[in-house]
Amino acid sequence: MILVVGSTGYLGGEITRRLRERNLPVRAFVRLSSDRAAVQNLVELGAEPVEGDLRDPESLRRAVRGATAVVSTATVTRSRQPGETLESTDQQGQANLITAAREAKVDHFVFVSFSRQIGGDDPLTRAKRENEERIRESGFGYTILRPSYFMEAWLGPHLGFDYLNRRATIYGDGSAPISWIALGDVAEFAVRSLTSRAALNQVLELGGPEALNPNQVLRLFEQTSGDQFDVRYLPVSALEAQRAAAKDSMEQAFASLMLAYAKGDAIPMQPTLARLPVALTSVEEYAKRVLTESPQPDHAERR
């Protein structure tokens, strides 16, 4: 039995789907407050839902009972509920899960972190790195996945790359290369980590097939769409001021992520692909897909 924590999120849901496609048994950890449609989708995939909360150690002990492996993608960065913080969930909650997995003698723990060049002195980075260390010291087999910037998030409307309306916000001057990675590719690495001894007790840095700077990405989207984008650049000085003025841990975390984006995150993938040969999605493929799926913008409105 494989316990997926974060199963109602985009990445956790995709991991669950791919595990079930391989007819592997999945227990999906969900919260009482989880979207009912998302939970129903997990049930239809053939996953066994179990309710709990990362902040509730007893619910975690129930969830891991009988599990041979745990995959954790959980974070409050996209699904924060009232009372949740990075400190309570991403940091202490994940620590609670690691403890429960160790006590249950789980064989393999797959933890989705982020690239070593991402983040800084902020609560999210501290949570990721501290729990990476806990996992390495826990005595069970592990795979720590460190993906670079997700295309679906950082090349999407929610974080300023609004291809729907042909507008883009770029952090920094756009000259530093980033190994943008597709969510589906991270899901595939997670699934293969559970079934390949080449991934056992490994920390794997993950990126896409090529490192492109944001200006190159912008030109690619313009060429693919046939439209010129309205572009706004946020200089590093503005990002540093934003981090200094952050009022809570979430604002601090995103300011650090934006600053790291401005500095770039190029990842050579040959060592990882030698272990786990996954066919990587290019930014061009992603651009063609989202622009084809999206309605055409109202050019009169843009003017």
Number of helices: 13
Gyration radius over CA? 19 Å
CATH topology of the domain at 2-149 and 182-208 and 267-281: Rossmann fold
Question: What is the name of the CATH architecture of the domain at 2-149 and 182-208 and 267-281?
Answer: 3-Layer(aba) Sandwich
SS elements, strand count? 10
Strand content: 15-25%
CATH domain class name of the domain at 2-149 and 182-208 and 267-281:
Alpha Beta
In whole angstroms, the N-to-C terminal distance is 55 Å
Architecture overview:
With 303 residues, the protein is of the alpha/beta class. It has a domain at 2-149 and 182-208 and 267-281: NAD(P)-binding Rossmann-like Domain (Rossmann fold, 3-Layer(aba) Sandwich), CATH 3.40.50.720. The chain is 45% helix and 15% strand. It is built from 13 helices and 10 strands. β7 (161-162) and β8 form a beta hairpin. Residues 299-303 have low confidence and may be disordered.
Task: Please sum up the structure shown.
By secondary structure, the protein is an alpha/beta fold. It is built from 13 helices and ten strands. The protein has a domain at 2-149 and 182-208 and 267-281: NAD(P)-binding Rossmann-like Domain (Rossmann fold, 3-Layer(aba) Sandwich), CATH 3.40.50.720.
Which SSEs are present, and which pair or pack?
Elements: E1 2-5, H1 10-21, E2 26-30, H2 36-45, E3 48-51, H3 57-64, E4 69-72, H4 86-103, E5 108-112, H5 123-137, E6 141-147, H6 151-154, E7 161-162, E8 167-171, H7 183-195, E9 202-206, H8 214-225, E10 230-234, H9 236-244, H10 249-263, H11 270-275, H12 283-293, H13 299-302
Parallel strand pairs: 1-2, 1-4, 2-3, 4-5, 5-6, 6-9, 8-10
Antiparallel strand pairs: 7-8
Helix pairs in contact: 1-7, 3-4, 4-5, 8-12, 9-10
